[in-house]
Amino acid sequence: MAAQRTQTLVLIGHGMVGHRLLEALAERGALADPAVPGGPGWQVTVLAEEDVPAYDRVHLSSVFTGTDPNQLGLSTPEFLSGHGIDLRLGDPAEHIDPAARTVTTTSGAVVPYDALVLATGSYPFVPPIPGADAAGCFTYRTLYDVDALTRYAEQAGTGVVIGGGLLGLEAAGALRTLGLTTHVVEFAPRLMPLQVDDGGAAALRATIESMGVAVHTGVGAAEVETDADGKACLLKLSNGERLPADVVVFSAGVRPRDRLAREAGLAVGDRGGVAVDEHCRTTDPYVYAIGECAQTSDGRVYGLVAPGYQMAEAVADQLAGSGATVFTGADTSTKLKLLGADVASFGDPFADGRDGGPRATEIVFSDGREGVYKKLLLGPEGQLLGGILVGDAEAYGSLKPHAGRRLPGPPEAFLLPAGAAGAEPPGADALPDDAVVCSCHNVTKGAVAAAITEHGLTDLGGVKRCTKAGTGCGGCAGTLQAVLDAAGVERSRGLCEHFPELTRPEIYELVRTEHIRSFTELMERYGSGGTGGSADAGAVRGAGTPGSAGAGCVVCKPVVANVLGTLAPELGLRHVLDGEQAALQDSNDLFLANLQKNGTYSVVPRVPGGEITSEQLIALGEVARDHGLYSKITGGQRIDLFGARKEELPAIWRRLIAAGLESGQAYGKSLRTVKSCVGSRFCRFGQGDSVQLAIDLELRYRGLRAPHKIKGGVSGCLRECAEARGKDIGVIATAGGWNLYVCGNGGTRPRHADLLASDLSAAGLFALIDRFLMYYVRTGERLERTSAWLERLGGGTDGTDKAGGTDEAGRTGGTAAARGLARLREVLIEDSLGICAELEAQMDRHVAAYRDEWQAVLDDPAALARFAPHVAGVEFLEPGRGRAAVLADGTEAALFRNGDGEVYAVGNRDPFSGADVIADGIMGSRDGVPVVASPLHKQEFDLRTGACLDDPSVTLPVLPVPTARP
Questions:
Q1: Cα(691)–Cα(697) distance, rounded to whole angstroms?
Q2: Of 9, 461, 471, 905, which is most buried with the most CB atoms under 10 A?
């Protein structure tokens, strides 16, 4: 059906799928050249219902978090004019006359066509219940819906979403972002009934409810009750329960918009949808239908964008003349994040042998504590039929391309947590070339690999630009990176773009041996663009001048801050918040407290060995009462006070210090606690005073900053009540002295510590721990726990000890950890490097220089000023550090000044959490762009445009920069 002369194509609908058709026609050269009147190709007229061009409806919810609607746009005036496309906004089709081949619009315009494509999408289903049309009731499909809901919610307190599917949970996230107490009502017995099973739904529900969203399943909506003004105020459920409901959002499914086709006499499905064949052609050979309005040849109506794009490709092939592409069905795999929970399903997640299909064997991993549920379904020949991933969808990219094939490894390798025995899924090289790695654009692994070779691609951005893979839902990004890795594209060994040739241990050695006292000095001498780095280090320059406070990033700044903190006694530095150091600190170290998800902080005083006086307990209780804090006893034998605002912290510290308490440094990559049992003081089995030793250890090593957090434990006998062998430093009393175990940890990759030395005296024990900690500080990589460090010392490349550590008798095998332990004995006991005395002396200097960090802030007016909730004006901004400010219109802004004096202003609310914390994030640069990293989960935002560099669907509002006071 290729146009040999100019022919007219009418496209009804300009949504995502309709616009993809226009792009596909342009890619095939099938559109008429507006500069050549009468030439071959299609002249397109688009009849759009909305008054804005096509936009990304998949990421519609991002508008609630500050994304400018214009940033969701898919079309440009240049694209439309360059191809002569006549886009008529706000003038939808009203009637089709197939005999005359004309379309009449609501304005009365009559448009003739040679071919017609219906891309009218779907409409939200609103259950026919009383009150459904009351003020405060909304659907959630368009930018208009988002705007209307946002404005109405300003005066609302509680919202209810009817529908617990994909769109319903997105809507619930939107209501929560708008600050409403949120309920979800789902008629089915579980959430997301079309995507996950009972186990997955239970994990998802637990996660959502932990975020304060109430979930009601197995019940329907019966009536929206209104107040005297006719506004929604209550939602009555089918079980008689009534929920407060200032806002009601209907998200109970969609229906195909097929009215035009029905009235034109075209065939439609029994349950709706314009019936089409494998070329997406209707019963009229001149009319096509694509997207959610079509019932495809397999009898289904697809509500996802990826199948709609594939239909658009099939129609484009027909109109361009080849007709090679057909649509007979689609992969409905999906991966998304709903209310902070990862959810993914692929293949047939409910394969059970019914309807003649293969009967499945289920392989399930579930961790209720972490809200993780994973299930794979295998056919009788071992082929992967489908799966469900909730809470941890990291394996989605590896699993989805194998649907319908045998897995290249045991299924457990794809399900178990990282580091668990057998949790080593095969890499991208195990994928066949014809495996589809991007469903949105139907891109295979072979196409990606070919593009990498042909174009010399070196990063994910290049792959996206050349293949379009990863530019849809984004769920395939991990797989694309794996294909890059499998192609031999090497990742930089350096810390980040600002130190591309230096690792953390190398930075530590440079600072130590060359007495470098600031980030600026290090950047100027060894950073990207400096004079002392490698020949390749000058390609990328951060925002601001070389070495300015605006340079660096969320990776290198905290690392250098940590190194300077560790070496402070050697360098003559006083406090981690002195001068420029404050601009390097992550929010926890900046405010010396732990940031929580709502933007408040927790306060954890040190309780050495778990020993505390009654007066100190009373002081803690009074502080918690007076400041309205939640109190909890931690697993490390301390008391945590939650919910403090940052401006309250200094007052809280003063009272705790007056009671004899000090900072517990729960916020830092440093020693946290040394846990103990009661030992020989009270226990009839105790062979050593574990309490006193724990106190002595904690007081000696407090304040020591390291590559990662450090925990200790002391047990008074081999019964191990303090769980010392689950710690980085574990000490157990014996009849002959103390046994020292090292490099254990709990968490996501629990590991027993290894026996380093036995029957030590107290003096010998402290000397060996001094050496161990200082050697770890010198040689550990960024965020490397001692367990991974030990394995790396032994030649492990991925921090995974395949065969475990030692047995109960302390025997070691040929594992990476065993070799690492042997290396530690050589260095720390046999002194093979001749540095043991140096390590001990350095620890002595650290102990002598220790000062409580809370008290240091209270003694420093400049440091105290940072705890004020808002800055008075831009003239008070410190270079490289953000501050919150209230603008003239009452908007709370996050202000940042770079090293050149340029000031940026963006919204202070983190769009992912809803907490007002952006001003407390680290300012830096990424690929030359000035950015701020959210202090909660480290997503980076362009300070010039507000765009999130890690999630294009999310933005911060860019605000006017206030003028400095005269």
A1: 10
A2: 9
Partner residues linked to 19 by β-bridges: none
pLDDT value of residue 502: 93
What is the helix (H) or strand (E) element at residue 97, kind and residue range? strand 93-97
Average pLDDT over residues 275-303: 95
Burial letters 277-298, b for 16+ CB under 10 A, else e: bebbbbbbeebbbbbbbbbbbe
pLDDT tens digit string along 247-261? Answer: 999 998 899 999 999
State how far the Cα of 648 lies from the Cα of 595, in Å rounded to an integer. 13
Let me know: does 388 contact 375? Beta carbons within 8 Å: yes
Order of strands across the sheet that contains 639-644: 594-595, 601-603, 639-644, 630-633
The token pair that represents 699 in the structure block = 């007081």
* Contacts for 368 with CB less than 8 Å, ≥ 6 apart: 203, 206
User: Which residue, 370, 423, 868, is CA-closest to 650?
Assistant: 868
Helix, coil or strand: residue 363: strand
Give, as one character, the DSSP assignment of residue 920. Answer: G
Q: Which residues contact 683 (CB under 8 A, 6 or more apart)?
A: 677, 716, 717, 721
Grade residue 544 by pLDDT with cuts at 50, 70 and 90. Answer: very low
Cα dist from 22 to 69, 117, 509, whole Å: 21, 11, 58
Q: What distance in Å separates the CA atoms of residue 307 and residue 332, rounded to the nearest whole number?
A: 8
Is residue 176 left, alpha or beta, with left meaning phi > 0 and alpha meaning psi from -120 to 50? alpha
Q: Is the pLDDT of residue 540 over 60?
A: no
| CA dist., res. 446 & res. 179, Å (int) | 46
Q: How far is CA 464 from the centre of its chain?
A: 20
Backbone φ and ψ of 726, nearest 5°: -105, 15
**Average pLDDT value for the chain:** 87
What pLDDT, in 10s, does the model give residues 914-954?
A: 899 999 999 999 888 999 999 988 889 999 999 988 777 78
The span from the first CA to the last CA of the chain, in angstroms, equals 71
Estimate to the nearest angstrom the gap between the alpha carbon of 630 and the chain centroid: 27
Q: For the whole model, what pTM was predicted?
A: 0.59
Instruction: Write the DSSP assignment of 498-558 as a string of letters.
Output: TBTT--HHHHHHHHHHHT---HHHHHHHHSTT-SSS-TTTTS---SSSTT-TT-S-TTHHH
Q: How far is CA 860 from CA 549, 650, 664, 697, in A?
A: 21, 11, 20, 29
Whole-number Å distance between alpha carbons of 126 and 128 = 6
Query: CA-CA distance, 38 to 694, in Å (whole number)?
Result: 89
* 905 SS3 class: strand
